[in-house]
Design a protein that fits this description.
Helices cover about 40% and strands about 15% of the residues. It has helices at about 5-10, 35-40, 45-60, 60-85, 95-105, 125-135, 155-165, 190-200, 220-225, 275-285, 295-305, 310-330, 360-375, 400-420, and strands at about 30-35, 90-95, 115-120, 140-145, 175-180, 205-210, 230-235, 245-250, 345-350, 375-380, 380-385, 385-395. The strands form 3 sheets. It has a 7-stranded mixed beta sheet with strand order 2-8-7-6-5-3-4, with helices on both faces. A hairpin with a 2-residue loop joins strand 11 (about 380-385) and strand 12 (about 385-395). The protein is globular. GO terms for molecular function: transferase activity. This is PLP-dependent transferase. Keywords: Pyridoxal phosphate, Transferase. Pfam families: Aminotran_5.
Length: about 425
């Protein structure tokens, strides 16, 4: 499938979901991948698109980058806007969600006694961005909410509301909440739209880290949900070439974002900036590989061909639920979310490994080495609330037997790691 012509491919009928779709992806046939959520995987037709664009660019770099590039970029922004219920001029592209979150937070004018609200489950780099801002003048306060799964959506809503109400409200000071739409670890859907409503009630700016949402979360309508900012990766679940993310900056908040990061040649001070100037900042702010940005359309075409967003979701969601139950049975443990309230296409299952062993660099490396180097298989692993878990991503090319095979591998690996750490099973 390496040299497939998209036009020829799409004249064919779509394949069935499951292992029959593996031939459309350049994954190693010997690799058992249940960790699509971390980095994504683009199908061959997307790689063909980027290859064709690259040759076009190299044939005449000036023409492509100065003239042709923008028409491709605007088409991507238009298609993304339609997908998430926004206006095209509210969508700009950045390399990844972390860059998007940093762009927002480092544009805000911080003052002493401002408050940044984050969660213990915030993505690591985003979590550390909040604390970094708290460590530099004017030293805004970081206030952290501790989520402990298993829990319920209502408990999270109540906990969030109570936390906001408990915070001081100095006159004229800002409060900003960084909220995951879908947490990375655990892979759990948060009731983020409800949390946005609470932010509005409490006068808090909502910054939504939606890194896992596009291509997984269904029927997104940002105009209706009205977060203050929202950023999502397109290379994780949408099948674009990594790395590219969309950053939603609604018109009402455009004045808060003064510059792209890094600052573009198109920068103009706020009092003299036009909409065209604002958009231009995101069209070019230095020479990087901009081509992944232009693969979103090819990814959407592929997804439409294999069945469309709803069909993709149904396969992946149902497989995640069924696969998680099967793994828990093999492990003799439990799924984190037995009612499926937090589960979209990622399922969290407790590993057969003692929770009395806390996270360490050594243990983490043992798990990764034994899974990736020795077994050629992987699903994300993490330590949360005194337990070890694995987060399995169900994708269009996966089937239930993948979960069964991976579970048996994890049982072996957990046993080997316990032995290497010198653990006495009787004390487990």
């Amino acid at each position: 499938m390496e040299n497939v012509n998209p036009a020829d491919l799409y004249r064919q009928g779509p394949p069935s979901f499951g292992h029959g779709l593996l031939k459309y992806f350049p994954l190693d046939p010997e690799y058992l991948n249940l960790n699509h959520g971390s980095f994504g995987s683009a199908p061959y037709v997307v790689h063909k698109t980027i290859s064709d664009l690259n040759f076009k660019l190299e044939a005449n770099p000036d023409k492509f980058l100065r003239l042709d590039y923008l028409s491709y970029l605007n088409d991507v922004r238009d298609r993304l806007a339609k997908l998430v219920g926004a206006q095209r001029d509210e969508i700009v592209l950045v390399p990844n969600a972390s860059v998007g979150i940093n762009t927002i937070l480092r544009n805000l004018e911080w003052e002493k006694e401002d408050t940044i609200i984050c969660f213990n489950t915030s993505y690591n780099s985003v979590h550390k961005t909040a604390y970094n801002l708290g460590d530099i003048p004017p030293y805004p306060t970081v206030s952290e909410i501790a989520l402990k799964f298993p829990t319920t959506p209502q408990q999270i809503v109540d906990q969030f509301r109570a936390h906001l109400k408990s915070l001081p409200k100095p006159e004229g000071k800002k409060r900003i909440a960084i909220i995951d739409s879908i947490i990375s670890n655990p892979g759990a859907l948060l009731p983020w739209q409800e949390l946005v409503k609470i932010c509005k009630e409490e006068g808090v700016i909502s910054v939504i880290d939606a890194a896992h949402s596009i291509g997984q979360e269904q029927k997104i309508n940002l105009t209706a949900a009205a977060p203050d900012f929202w950023v999502s990766n397109c290379h994780k679940w949408l099948h674009a070439k990594r790395s590219v993310a969309m950053l939603y900056i609604p018109e009402r908040n455009r004045h808060l974002i003064k510059t792209s990061h890094p600052t573009s040649h198109a920068y103009k001070p706020l009092d003299s900036r036009t909409l065209e100037d604002f958009i231009a900042q995101w069209e070019w702010n230095g020479t990087i590989d901009w081509l992944p940005f232009l693969t979103v359309g090819a990814a959407l075409d592929f997804r439409q061909w294999i069945g469309g967003e709803a069909k993709i979701f149904d396969h992946c969601h149902n497989l995640a639920l069924e696969g998680g139950r099967l793994m828990a049975e093999i492990f003799g443990t439990r799924v984190m979310d037995p009612n499926g309230e937090f589960t979209l296409n990622m399922v969290n299952v407790e590993l057969p490994f003692p929770g009395s062993v806390p996270y360490s660099v050594k243990t983490n490396k043992l798990f990764m080495t034994k899974m990736l180097n020795e077994r050629g298989a992987y699903s994300a692993h993490f330590y949360h609330n005194g337990r070890w878990w694995t987060r399995c991503s169900a994708q269009v090319y996966n089937e239930l037997e993948d979960f069964e095979k991976l579970a048996k591998i994890w049982v072996e690996v957990c046993q080997e790691v316990k032995q290497e750490l010198g653990l006495d099973e009787k004390k487990d």
